[in-house]
Every structure is written in structure tokens, then in C-alpha cells.
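User: quick one, sequence for these C-alpha cells?
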């Protein structure tokens, strides 16, 4: 089964039902489909505890109960808790790749938890860290998954 690390921005798209201000495109539709794939056990989903912390921070900043991050457990996503060696790797990524702290932890956690793909909407993160792990947008991942399932 394919194992995917889901970046915070992908989850926030679903939680806030974000739309593209220019086109009106519903940015949350592909991320929601990925969560449905996790819930139906067709894909294994992983986030780190730092993903939940970042989500709770964004919720609080937007006057939404930070407790909403617990909904992630209802979907069946594994919450990975990085140990000190993974955090040292994250710090190394921050220094060598120039990724921000949360992205560095996401990358190190995705690698340590043996994910096949890291799903993110952050183009800068993908540019900086794409050589470390396969990185895709939610739409790219769904297309890639469809192409693997075709005869």
C-alpha cells in the first residue's frame, strides 16, 4: 500500500474549504479525496505531531477551536512522533536545503516513517526538498494514483 505524508497546508485546505480567489476553484476537493482514500484504507496517511501543532496554531489564530485537529484521528491518519535523531535530521535539512522549521520536520518525518510520497501545496518546499523524496500536489498525486491503477 502506498504511504503518503500529508503536509499541513493540504489539511488546512480541507478544514477551511479554501478556494482560489482568482478562479473560484475549490482547492479542498483533491485533499478531501486523499483523506477519503486514507479513511477507506486504500492509502496509508501520515502526519507528524508538529503538523497537528501547526494546525492548532492556525485554528487558534482564526478563532477556531484548536481541538478540531483531533478530527485527523477519525480519518485514520497515523500521527508520527519524531525522535531526537529525526529532529536532528530536520535541523540538518533546514541548514542545507533552506527549508523552514515545520517543512524540515515534515521532510524528516516523511523519510523516517518510510513514506513513498510527500503531498504538499507549497511550491517552494517542493523546489527545495524535491530531491529527497517524491513530492506532489494533491491533484498530481490523485492523477499519479489513477495512472498506477489503470490496466
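Assistant:
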Amino acid at each position: 500500500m502506498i504511504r503518503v505524508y500529508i503536509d499541513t497546508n493540504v489539511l488546512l485546505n480541507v478544514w477551511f474549504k479554501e478556494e482560489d480567489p482568482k478562479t473560484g476553484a475549490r482547492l479542498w476537493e483533491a485533499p478531501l479525496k486523499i483523506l477519503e482514500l486514507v479513511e477507506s484504507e486504500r492509502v496509508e496517511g501520515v502526519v507528524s505531531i508538529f503538523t497537528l501543532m501547526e494546525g492548532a496554531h492556525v485554528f487558534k489564530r482564526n478563532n477556531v477551536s484548536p481541538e478540531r485537529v483531533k478530527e485527523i484521528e477519525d480519518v485514520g491518519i497515523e500521527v508520527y512522533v519524531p525522535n531526537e535523531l529525526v529532529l536532528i535530521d530536520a535541523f540538518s535539512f533546514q541548514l542545507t536545503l533552506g527549508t523552514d522549521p515545520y517543512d524540515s520536520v515534515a521532510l524528516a518525518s516523511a523519510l523516517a516513517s518510510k513514506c513513498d510520497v510527500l503531498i504538499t501545496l507549497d511550491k517552494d518546499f517542493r523546489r527545495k526538498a524535491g530531491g529527497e523524496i517524491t513530492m506532489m500536489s494533491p491533484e498530481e498525486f490523485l492523477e499519479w494514483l489513477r495512472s498506477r491503477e489503470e490496466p
